[in-house]
# Entry
Amino acid sequence: MTTALATVTVIGGVDTHKHTHYAAVVDIHGRLLGHQEFPATDPGYQLLLGWMRGHGDVQAIGVESTGSFGATLTRALTRAGERVVEVNRPNRLARRMDGKSDRLDAEQIARAVLGQTSTATPKAKSGAVEVIRTLRVTRASAVKARTQAFNTLWGVMIGAPSPLRDELVMLTKRTLVNRCLRLRPETDDLLTLIATPERLLMAAVKTSLRDLARRWKALDEEVKTLNRQIEAMVRATAPELLELHGVGVEIAGQFLVTVGDNTARIRSEAAFAKLCGVAPQPASSGRTTGRHRLSRSGDRAANSALYIITIVRIRHHQPTRDYVERRTAEGLTKREIIRCLKRYIAREIYSKLPQPTTATPATTNTPAPAA
# Structure
């Protein structure tokens, strides 16, 4: 007579790096069953998953840095049907007591999932929102480089010889760039003018201004192209979000990136408000009761987007202006009113986010007075 072996339920943890990932497996009682390093490649991900499944029935896998080094691994595990949990904050007490190594980090990640101190579902990073995020990151880099190019051009122009400087210093930004594009140095071989310092300096300055103007122009065209691509993607992904007063393409894109492709990971509008840093938190202690403060955590870019919408509505949205007047009469300060409005707007934004097609319809929230 043979006895069937009971199925062991295990939890995995992965400490991610650029070239390798270190994995550990614990059972539901917290006992370490094994640890091993795997290459950060598609075949390595399959080996890692097979190794974990070899220890038992995988309940969940904690992954560190799901937005960077662990992004590809997260996609691979999700496609394989595994439940992935985002773990980004290590157990600092355990690190101080036991030290730090890849094995210890992977083990602590698994224990964080086991103890439910980490429960966040990572962003899918495999749909239209990830495309928008990538385009926005590229545009931000191009805008920064364009600004740097113009600042350098301006600095060179300010120190140019007087005849050239006097001609350019009064021009507006785009006119200055276009004028610098038409500059013609005496020669591109500066060594031929080394015996005449004044002519050499003028040729060098004209060459620098022309090249910087070409760089600025190329970056400007790149930014315009990216703007068109981002607008098309945002309008196709979240058309209802753009219908809200004060929400443009840039603001809508930020909220989409904050939430991610899998919007179902945000379980409620309260969770979305906390993610945006506008959820009140209890701050009572001792004899002080009923006191709250706003969260200082969350996505600060999303919080900034909510603030921009609030200011736009205070200036141009009549229902919001009426709300501000009423709350001012009740004795609230402008800062307190803005905080209330940001919380109301977060509720409205959440109701307009694109929902997954397989999800059940969410309960309609009652619109806020300021919305």
Q: What stands out?
A: Residues 1-5, 358-371 have pLDDT under 50 and may be disordered. The chain has 14 helices and seven strands. The longest strand covers residues 9-16.
